[in-house]
Design brief:
By secondary structure, this protein is mainly alpha-helical. It is built from five helices and two strands; from the N terminus they run αβαβααα. The protein folds into two domains: about 10-75, no CATH class; about 85-120, no CATH class. The radius of gyration is 15 Å and the shape is globular. The N and C termini lie close together (about 10 Å).
């Protein structure tokens, strides 16, 4: 991740075409994709991303758009500004806790701790 040079999204038609070429065999009309329709290596990558960096607590068969973008950036070996999405999730979680909403803090602190530790040890944070 390189936030300064990283993208925050990709052109829908380009990344959807690339995913089809890599084996996705499902509908592309929705923003959420189904993990089970990918070939096994991509299914495993998206599953790992969902478990490690997603704030989802249910429906791990669905891949939200920001996780799709992150996976696509990994496939392209390009920089992606995922920390903005993490920050937005954290802000929303704090708001949900304050408003005592059912869906509150579900971000994985261990992953964030590792990310911050890695960034600070590289002197780029």
């Amino acid at each position: 991740m390189n936030d300064l040079a990283g993208k925050t999204s990709f052109p829908k038609s380009k990344y959807q075409l690339d995913l089809i070429e890599r084996g996705y065999d499902g509908q592309l009309s929705k923003t959420t994709m189904q993990k089970g329709i990918f070939p096994p290596p991509m299914k495993f990558m998206f599953h790992t991303l969902l478990i490690c960096v997603s704030t989802k607590t249910t429906a791990f068969i669905e891949i939200p758009l920001k996780i799709q973008y992150l996976g696509y950036a990994i496939m392209l070996k390009t920089d992606f500004n995922y920390s903005q999405a993490l920050f937005t999730d954290l802000v929303n979680n704090v708001k949900n806790v304050k408003e005592k909403k059912k869906h509150n803090f579900s971000c994985v602190p261990k992953v964030l701790k590792l990310l911050f530790k890695t960034k600070t040890s590289c002197k780029s944070f």
